[in-house]
Design goal:
Blueprint (H helix, E strand, L loop, with lengths): L1 H11 L4 H5 L4 H11 L7 H11 L56 E4 L3 E5 L4 H12 L6 E8 L2 E3 L2 E4 L2 E12 L7 H36 L4 H8 L2 H16 L1 E5 L4 E5 L3
Parallel strand pairs: 1-6, 2-6
Antiparallel strand pairs: 3-6, 4-5, 7-8
Helix pairs in contact: 3-4, 6-7, 6-8
Length: 268
């Protein structure tokens, strides 16, 4: 029984049996070992710690975390003893584990450059006057305008298009109300509604241009250079068609109900 116990304490718990037998209170040590021996539900490290605690030999002779005569190691139960070595500077080839070495994501295609709206103030007492002055400011029969430009710089590999390289740049010019003396709240609300409808309409022109560019890129990628360039060269024309379609539905803003409301309708 004693040999079996000692063997278990030595191999399973890492207890230095010879040191244990040399403790000042041998009976106390033997009782502690006997109490722990056979506790299969306890972890080896916890059982050994119980022996160490019962014999009063914790950290004897070396302070906290030091060498104990019960153990053939210098760590506490459950800890792994890790050899220490002087820190060495990293060379250029060594990378920290947390450094992201993956390639950066490709730039967006198409790239969208939407400038802030270029607004101009229009003072008016009525919505009819507001619209007349807005049209006069732009020099055309439109109260707002969206300028769109497309730039293309496709990339080809192995005779195939891998990037459309399209940049869409847009600038919206639109009126805002600069104040006045509307004859009623309804007239004032009509002017404010006109400002909102113009802003939303021009925003749809901008979005149409973006959608045209996205479709062109999707159609061009994977095509031969000749086919891809033909698709990309049609972007401006496709956008003009989209602009005409939208203006055919809501390209003109007009006052109604004696200037107390406004609505969008087909352009002339």
């Amino acid at each position: 029984m004693t040999e079996e116990r000692d063997a278990w304490m030595k191999t399973a718990l890492g207890v230095n049996i010879d040191a244990l037998r040399k403790t000042e209170d041998a009976k106390k040590a033997r009782d502690a070992v006997s109490a722990v021996f056979g506790r299969t539900t306890a972890t080896a490290s916890q059982a050994a710690w119980d022996v160490k605690k019962a014999t009063g030999l914790r950290n004897r002779g070396s302070g906290s975390g030091g060498t104990s005569p019960l153990y053939d190691r210098t760590t506490s139960p459950g800890e792994e003893e890790i050899p220490k070595s002087p820190a060495q500077p990293l060379d250029d080839k060594q990378k920290p584990w947390f450094e992201d070495t993956s390639p950066p994501p490709p730039p967006p295609d198409p790239k969208i450059v939407s400038h802030s709206d270029d607004t101009f103030e229009v003072s008016a007492d009525t919505v009819d006057t507001f619209l007349e002055r807005a049209n006069a400011h732009l020099g055309a029969k439109e109260a707002g305008h969206t300028n769109i430009t497309f730039d293309t710089s496709p990339t080809f590999k192995g005779g195939k298009c891998v990037r459309g390289g399209v940049t869409v740049t847009s600038t919206i010019t639109r009126p805002v109300w600069g104040g006045g003396r509307p004859p009623s709240d309804d007239h004032k609300k009509a002017i404010q509604k006109a400002v909102q409808l113009i802003r939303e309409h021009e925003g749809r022109h901008r979005q149409d241009a973006i959608d045209v560019a996205k479709k062109a890129v999707a159609d061009a990628v994977g095509k031969t250079q000749t086919a891809a360039e033909a698709i990309l060269n049609q972007i401006d024309e496709k956008n003009k068609q989209a602009r005409a379609t939208l203006d055919g539905k809501e390209g003109k803003i007009s006052s109604i109900n004696n200037g107390t409301d406004v609505q969008l309708g087909p352009a002339n």
